Amino acid sequence: MSDFLEQLRADVGKAGTPSVSRDPVNLPTVRNWCDAVAEANPYFTDPAAASAGPHGGLVAPPAMLNAWTMPGLIMGAPAPRDLDRPDANVYAQLEDAGFTGVVATNSDLYFDRYLRHGDLITGVTRLVEVSEQKTTRLGNGHFVTTEAEFTDAAGERVGSMRFRVLKYAKPEALAAEGDGAAAVPAEATDRPLRPKPKFNQDQEWFWQGLRQRELRIQRFTDDGSLVHPPANANPKTQAMDWDWVVASGKATLYSFTVPHYPQVPSFDYPHVVGLVELEEGVRLVSNIIGLKSNQLEIGMALEVCFVDTHDDVTLHQFRPAKTPRNSDTLAVAAVKVGDQLPLGPVPLDPLLIVSTAIATRDFQEVHHDRDIAQTRGSKDIFMNILTTSGIVTRWIGDWAGDDVIFKNLKIGLGAPNYPYDLMTLSGAVSEIGDDGTITVGFIGQNSVGAHVTGTADLTLPESTS
Amino acid sequence: MIKFARKTAIAGIGATEFSKNSGRTPMQLATEASIAACVDAGVNPADVDGIVVFSAEKNTDIEVARNLGVRELTHFSMINHGGGAACGVIAQAAMALYSGAAKYVLVYRAFNERSWHRFGQGVQDAHQSPEAFDVSFSWTTPFGLLTPAQWVAMFATRYMHEYGATSEDFGRIAVADRKHAATNPAAFFFERPITLDDHQNSRMITEPLRLLDCCQESDGGQALLLTTEDRAMDLKQRPAVIASAAQGVAHDQHLMRSYYRESISGLPEIGVVARQLWESTGLGPDDIQTAILYDHFTPFVLTQLEEFGFCAEGEARHFIADGAIEMGGRLPINTNGGQLGEAYIHGMNGIAEAVRQIRGTAVNQVDHVDNVLVTAGTGVPTSGLILTQPQ
After folding, report:
1. Does residue A205 belong to the interface with chain B, where contact is any CB pair within 8 Å?
2. Does B133 touch chain A (CB under 8 A)?
3. Which B residues, 264 through 293, put their C-beta within 8 Å of a C-beta on chain A?
4. Closest CB from B150, B155, B207 relative to A293
5. What's the confidence (pLDDT) of residue A399?
6. B206 and A CB contact within 8 Å
């Protein structure tokens, strides 16, 4: 073992000083979290519903477990870092050695009980493992594994977390170009633009609409007929007066193809081209994003979104529509192994990345400052791991219903969730234990690959009213 | 009602070899095929007085006429819409002959569709003007729907959904075609039959279409010489009488992208052709011994069987399941190997095969052939014809 590795591993097995949450579990912090990850379970924010629910009062979303003891942001002071914590010490050594990049790769959360508002949480973190130097897609680095145990004011354990991060050095190629803007990946700039739509005065209103994020459908004013592609006269009456309506954007998939060959450089292959039927009744051809070939089903609900492809062109796209929350909790008897969860589309706006980082109390610059993110070898800011946990539990809860109780959540992260992409969660019940524990296996895929894979164990009521 | 039924005939056929690289120009191919068709018929090329070509044909009528030493042309015209023109040029030639506008009409198609411009490579760099034809591609091209295979695949997915057809059903078309090509020395895939497993293991081109669902890209030329039935009776070969020929466009027609009709699981423009052919000849599906069904992509062969009434809508997968479309079956199709097995010459080589079936000279000769059905490009404005024995 190298001296360096020996030094990194000097504190393996040691625990840091207990870190006490600055605030007890409280409604405003919970509400910010719920708002940011679109969590709507009333047991987290609605006192009346919560007191009638299985927890007997307001509780915090389980995935917030480790958010309470996070250091917070103290402007004007050095980043609060407790060098007594053995893991913080390892991170500092790795940074000094040039491993400045950081990504969380695994988070296994175990919930002994849901946290009640007013709970004051203490966390103790133990350094479990420092890996040898590994070669990864991001660069060379070391994985650092910690385990944290969380207790309440009475000293009772409420949960624990096994956490793994990769501290890595930017690959030579990127480092040689210096910090900052040069780190933008080449493929983003070299790729030829898509074929541009050609139009004349008969259709320019359609393409101008897209520039304004409006999907317009031609309407003949004499009988209200909607026509697409646009025509010069009403095919039913030959009247030539028309205007347009703005489509709601709600649609279903009527047919599709998934081109593999030939591969034209301006597209990623395979990609999905759909024939989409708008709820207004007309069809149009569009890209379908956020879905793999085996997730496509004729008749599935879609919703419009838009992409700017040239300086002066915006195209419509369709993505899976979000399934409404299940208003009735599933009974355990109603769940079978193999049951599919509804697809969970998560459009990755920059606002989502930044607001969820802050709502989950993660103030690392890589989640809100693109310049710094690029300096650290990333192409852009990216979603933090607590948000991924929060969104996954929200999505599973939307399927299972309000009375679901999570026992644990184990996730591994892969392709970062960058802004302007779309992550689609999919999953299924993989196991039902003798004690009724349901295991859901899931994956969240973005345009690069799997952002998150993992499992969650949960329980559901025997029966539902 | 079509009035030229049984009044005209195909008197001569001529082709170059079919290959992936002809090594010569399309004009050379057009010239060779055209002279061969005249020689086959026993007509002096200089006597040709009519030429009908596809609008997709780049070898112009006047240059071919010059190469043939044609003295004068009294009829020349062009049929639009790609391979949908294949039987349309025959219908047009028949009308010209029946009306007296010409006595000997030449039709041809020649290209280096593999070694020069490949249709399968996509239209991403085409259609850059603001004219209506170019603009029509803007509803699909920016979204990466670029190739004929992709255009057809969109129909195929819906067809599978509505009728329960599978990729294997498409594969059976390819297997039949390649079986026929395997015994045709002129076919590119001579002695190279495939199995259904080969089809299922071939790479995905555009889901649900695999490589073996797609016709070849080919170099070659095919020409046909037409005249009136009376004149044809005095020429060198047994005439392949044109029982009827018809074109078809249906409502809300687009070029291979008629995605906006109430249903997209049929081919109503083929239905328009079928109705005219049956009405003008008094024939029906039971009178057809063999058919050349345009097979640029396998799924539309199923749809054509349904539109012509060989089986009910959605039932073609059952019709073909027991080898009905292979030699010895109820309706052997594409006995030359089709465009999947012989060559893709925009449907013209299929018409020549139908002529051979009437003459009794096909390498895969069907017994007792009275009538042969031929169709042209599908998904596009299209055409079809029935050849029959002379009286």
Report:
1. no
2. no
3. 264
4. B207
5. 97
6. yes
Q: What is the pLDDT of residue A84?
A: 73
Residue A25, Cβ density class (10 Å: 0-12 exposed, 13-18 middle, ≥19 buried): buried
Question: Is residue A11 within 8 Å of residue A93, measured between CB atoms?
Answer: no
Q: Is the ipTM of this structure higher than 0.90?
A: yes
The CA angle A412-A415-A417, to the nearest 5 degrees, is 100
CA A36 to chain centre: 11
Segments of chain A assigned to CATH 3.10.129.10: 3-169+324-459
Residue A386 contacts residue A63 (beta carbons within 8 Å):
yes
Domains of chain B, first to last: 8-115+221-388 (3.40.47.10)
* Pair of tokens at residue B278: 């049956």
On average, the pLDDT of chain A sits at 92
| H or E element, residue A305 | strand A301-310
Tokens of B106: 């030449």
CATH of A3-169+324-459, one of 3.30.420.40, 3.30.930.10, 3.10.129.10, 1.10.10.10: 3.10.129.10
The CA distance from B362 to B187, in Å, is: 12
* Bridge partners, B76 (sequence order): B51
pLDDT digits (tens, 9 = 90+) for A277-334: 999 999 999 999 999 999 999 999 999 999 999 999 999 999 999 999 998 889 999 9
Q: Within chain B, which residues score under 50 in pLDDT? A: none
B152/chain A closest Cα distance in angstroms: 9
- If DSSP codes are grouped into helix, strand and coil, which group holds residue A104? strand
CA distance B253 to chain A (A): 11
- Tell if the CB–CB gap between A298 and B158 is shorter than 8 Å: yes
Is A442 an 8 Å CB contact of chain B? no
Q: What are phi and psi of B272, to 5 degrees?
A: -65, -40
Cβ contacts (< 8 Å) between A194 and chain B: which residues? Answer: 142, 144
Which tens digits make up the pLDDT trace of A10-22?
999 999 889 899 9
Instruction: Tell me how far apart the alpha carbons of residues A94 and A101 are, in angstroms, rounded to a whole number.
Output: 10
> Is A265 an interface residue toward B (CB < 8 Å)?
no
Helices (H), chain B: 26-41, 61-68, 86-99, 132-136, 148-163, 167-181, 196-201, 229-233, 268-281, 299-307, 316-319, 338-341, 348-359
Residues 6+ apart with CB under 8 A from B374: B86, B87, B291, B292, B347, B350, B351, B354, B384, B385, B386, B387
Instruction: Find the closest chain B residue to A308 by CA distance.
Output: B142
Interface A-B: count of C-beta contacts within 8 A: 124
Q: Scanning every residue of chain B, which has its alpha carbon at the shortest distance from the alpha carbon of A253?
A: B158
**In this predicted model, what pLDDT tens digit does every residue of A46-56 receive, in sequence order?**
999 999 999 99
The pair of structure tokens assigned to B365 is 């000769």
d(CA B194, CA B178): 6
Amino acid type, B141: T
Residue among A195, A259, A270 whose CB faces B142 most closely: A195
Q: Which of these, A387, A401, A441, A397, lies nearest to A104 by C-alpha position?
A: A387
List CB contacts (< 8 A) between A313 and chain B: 142
In A336-355, the residues whose Cβ lies within 8 Å of chain B are none
Nearest CB neighbour to A200, from listed B123, B135, B205: B135
Residue A266 contacts B, CB cutoff 8 Å: yes
Chain B residues 147-176 within an 8 A CB cutoff of chain A: 147, 150, 153-158, 161
Distance, in Å, from the CA atom of B63 to the CA atom of A297, rounded to the nearest integer, reads 52
Nearest-Cα residue of chain B relative to residue A228: B260
